Amino acid sequence: QPLENAGVGQYFRSLGDRLRRLTVQEAPSTWDAEYHAITTEEQFAELLALLREKKKFSFDTETTDVRPRFAEIVGYSFAVEEGTAWYLPVRAPQGTPTFDPATTLERLRPLLEDASIEKIGQNLKYEMVLLRSHGVMLRGTAFDTMVADYLLEPGQRIHKLDDLAKRYLNHAMIPITALIGTGRNQKRMDEAPLADITEYAAEDADVPVRLEKILHRRLQEAELE
Q1: pTM for this one?
Q2: Which of 101, 112, 153, 156 sits most deeply, having the most CB atoms within 10 A of its CB?
Q3: Cα-based distances in Å from 23 to 13, 18, 19, 145, 166
């Protein structure tokens, strides 16, 4: 039967637009990436200098607890452009090169508290509460991929980073279970081998950089910026 109701017709036109967007989002993509562990003082100093120079970076933390107020920081990951990211460990299995947790946070403090240096990431509220619990006030939060996706797709039930990577980048991220296992054999994040956690954590900083360009453009188009 003909659709005489204008609202129904508009609904199907809107549905068609949405399906076209999804088709574009799900186009095959390549994933070229280089992820590096920071293990020497020279590398740490070079990373700090790079983050200051770029004035904008994506970052994420690996911790011991999903509740930020009770979590200890295991490491930090950073990215300034897509495809390259670094992981800075402060807690790791015995024998692994790490940096002192308290000293490392103090060295990062000027960057994290500088409002003129833009930070992007996924669920930055977690990082804000975590860092505040450790005496650091995160400033310069510029773009949160989770919030952006919620604004663009409020009907979606899930706005996790791996879900966003699949929908917008056609990329399957490393599952946390591959890193720490499940059930009785599950490890803590600070027990994961450095090589494994580097790939996992650095990806968490790289993906928001790739997503920001897509989501920012869509926010502008939808007048939701």
Answers
A1: 0.85
A2: 112
A3: 15, 9, 6, 20, 12
Q: How far apart are CA 216 and CA 195, in angstroms?
A: 32
Q: Which two tokens mark 140?
A: 């310069």
In angstroms, how far apart are the furthest CA atoms of the chain? 72
Which residues are paired to 76 by β-bridges?
A: 61, 88
Instruction: Strand 34-37: give its sheet, edge to edge.
Output: 34-37, 84-89, 73-81, 56-63, 118-121, 141-144
| Amino acid identity, position 72 | E
Measure the CA–CA gap between 27 and 22, rounded to whole angstroms. Answer: 9
The full length of the chain comes to 225
pLDDT at 180: 85
pLDDT tens profile 31-69: 899 999 999 999 999 999 999 999 999 999 999 999 999
Provide the pLDDT for residue 16: 43
Q: Amino acid identity, residue 212?
A: E
Write out pLDDT tens, residues 114-154.
Answer: 999 999 999 999 999 999 999 999 999 999 999 999 999 99
